[in-house]
């Protein structure tokens, strides 16, 4: 097989799990013999086709979990959980530095892609040098909207690098769930939240001054920090900033050292599914979405009406263009006619025409 061969998009999807062009690959089950062609295919399809990429060690994590369960019920020598065959021949098991090679590959794709809006990593150990390379790619990725990390140990330095990479337009969602984050990461979070708030205010100021009506800024709206190690200090330090920010929701359940009773912000979510606080948050989120859509439509309207004649019509409608005054005159004339007809004005009520009786008709014929 040619080393430069590229898998078709359908074959590439078959190597992982695919939903709506979001491709999630298990590197602990991906065969080492397919790695070269896999890399070529990601490079080929990543620029204009793939909408989201995810990477995980699902097979390895499941095997380690089963092995731990077996050891709890007897001697490890008597009760062993044999590793799956796919794990033994996988990229994760054979390559010396699989994550570094993956990040190197992504550094060639992410800055140039026109379609990848979601990037996700689950249960993959990422070193500080690899995070640094990844962050440079993230900062250069224009279409990226969501960065998701789950079950990845992040140091304070690594998390700080990630926060810096997201100080850009377009990032809407950031997830760092079960990443062993603690209160040392609060300053990085505060800087990130404050950056997006200032970015939004500046965008609104420019729109109000009619300096920039060509697009709507997408700020950071969703922050997922569940299952970490934050304490009440998080609430004391960030509540006011979160309340005044672009964020709609901050998910914080699973941070067992935070007392939910001290949380008085509707944006910080600790409640269960049917909790009324969550219902209120969902409503607030919908309102925020409507507000964003309203701003987008206002910008479009401003673009249409700029340097054009605008004339108001009845029922809150506007005519735009050089002949807008003529249209307005015609509409007003039609409105007057309609009101007269509706009020049974004699001038506009049709005259009733009655049929002549048969006797009269016969008489006329006799006369003739």
Please provide the count of β strands: 11
Give the class-level CATH name of the largest domain.
Answer: Alpha Beta
Helicity range: 40-55%
Distance separating the two termini: 108 Å
Report the sheet-strand fraction: 5-15%
Taken in chain order, the helices and strands follow as HEEHEHHHHEHEHEHEHEEHEEHH
Show unreliable segments. 272-278, 357-368
Could you give a short account of the major beta sheet?
Answer: 9 strands, mixed
* Helix/sheet category: alpha/beta
Total tally of structural domains: 2
CATH architecture of the largest domain: Alpha-Beta Horseshoe
Specify Rg, calculated over alpha carbons: 32 Å
The overall pLDDT, averaged over residues, is 83
Name the overall outline: elongated
Q: How many helix segments?
A: 13
Largest sheet strand order: 1-2-3-4-5-6-7-8-9
> What is the CATH topology descriptor of the largest domain?
Leucine-rich repeat, LRR (right-handed beta-alpha superhelix)
CATH superfamily of the largest domain: Ribonuclease Inhibitor
């Amino acid at each position: 097989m040619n080393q430069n061969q590229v898998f078709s998009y359908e074959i590439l999807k078959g190597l992982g799990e695919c939903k709506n062009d979001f491709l999630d690959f298990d590197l602990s089950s991906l065969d080492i013999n397919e790695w070269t062609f896999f890399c070529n295919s990601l490079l080929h399809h990543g620029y204009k086709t793939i909408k989201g990429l995810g990477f995980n060690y699902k097979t390895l994590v499941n095997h380690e979990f089963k092995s731990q369960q077996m050891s709890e019920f007897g001697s490890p020598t008597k009760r062993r959980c044999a590793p799956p065959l796919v794990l033994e021949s996988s990229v994760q098991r054979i390559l010396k530095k699989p994550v570094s090679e993956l990040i190197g590959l992504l550094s060639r794709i992410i800055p140039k892609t026109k379609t990848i809006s979601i990037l996700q990593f689950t249960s993959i150990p990422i070193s500080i040098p690899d995070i640094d390379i990844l962050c440079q790619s993230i900062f250069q990725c224009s279409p990226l909207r969501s960065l998701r990390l789950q079950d990845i140990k992040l140091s304070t330095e690594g998390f700080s690098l990630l926060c810096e990479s997201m100080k850009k337009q377009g990032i809407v969602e950031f997830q760092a769930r079960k990443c062993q984050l603690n209160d040392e990461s609060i300053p990085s979070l505060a800087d990130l939240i404050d950056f997006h708030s200032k970015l939004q205010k500046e965008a609104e100021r420019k729109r109000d001054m009619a300096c920039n009506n060509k697009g709507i800024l997408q700020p950071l709206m969703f922050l997922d920090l569940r299952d970490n190690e934050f304490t009440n200090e998080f609430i004391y330090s960030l509540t006011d900033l979160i309340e005044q920010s672009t964020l709609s929701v901050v998910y914080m359940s699973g941070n067992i050292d935070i007392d939910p009773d001290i949380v008085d912000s509707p944006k910080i979510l600790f409640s269960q599914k049917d909790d009324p606080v969550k219902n209120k948050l969902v409503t607030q989120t919908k309102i925020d979405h409507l507000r964003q859509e309203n701003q987008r439509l206002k910008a479009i309207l401003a673009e249409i009406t700029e340097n054009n004649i605008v004339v108001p019509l009845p029922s809150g409608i506007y005519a735009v263009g050089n002949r807008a005054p003529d249209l307005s005159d015609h509409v007003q004339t039609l409105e007057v006619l309609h009101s007269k007809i509706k009020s049974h004005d004699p001038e506009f009520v049709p005259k009733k025409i009655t049929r002549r009786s048969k006797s009269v008709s016969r008489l006329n014929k006799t006369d003739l």
